[in-house]
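Lecture notes, unit on protein representations.

Consider one protein chain, 262 amino acids long.
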Amino acid sequence: MIQTGTLKKKTAWATQEVAYEMRYLDKSDLPSIMDLQSLIVSRLTRKDLLEAFPYEFMKVHINERGFIIGIFVDKELIAFRNVYFPGIDDQEWNLGYDIGLKQANDLGNIANLQMICVHPDFRGNSLALRMNTKAIQRIKRLNRYTHLCATVSPYNYWNVRILLNCGFIIKELKYKYQDKLRYVLYQHLIKPFKGLWTQHTINKRLTDIDSQMALIKEGFIGIRLNEIPGHIPQSIADNANGFEVVYSKINWDQGGVNQDCW
């Protein structure tokens, strides 16, 4: 058991308070994991928002090459967060290659925050932030990993904001996973970059892909997500247009900053 408490559950008639348990999942939980993933995929506003995992790959995340944190309400899985430890030769899932790491020692010390799913009835409880916090704490306690990475669609503004709030920076923007557009986010677990930016910033709309790619090529990194005042979405899928990414550069004159992936 990791944590217990109460959550707010949305229903068609009201919002009710319910008890929850957060714990590490095991292989007996795989059917529930796959069912929740299927539910989330069926409700996506864009089919490229999530890279669904097959059963066998999901299974590898439990004990063998990672761990999964789950949250239960009335013994039903309502949220989970995958963590994965990719092999040094795994060029699809070892995101060290995507952020420019070249040394074998670095590529062998990568951890990924992989997939996150939250049942729609329980959104608004900061469950992703809670699970991310616990996952990062456990990764640090293992004392084996230096680099932490994640990927997310630019159109998944909810997850982009959460990852940036958890200490990540946007390091890359590219096509991955059968030509799905993805940010590659990064944080150094020993020498964090957070707050070590220059004062010069440039804001780009979340959906302005070409401009963001150009900035990243110039050495800019995404550090924050701002809501654009006055934006009225025309549909649920248009919500991402109401946000902009704040880009800056690392201030290398400040001590303790790691330059492994630059």
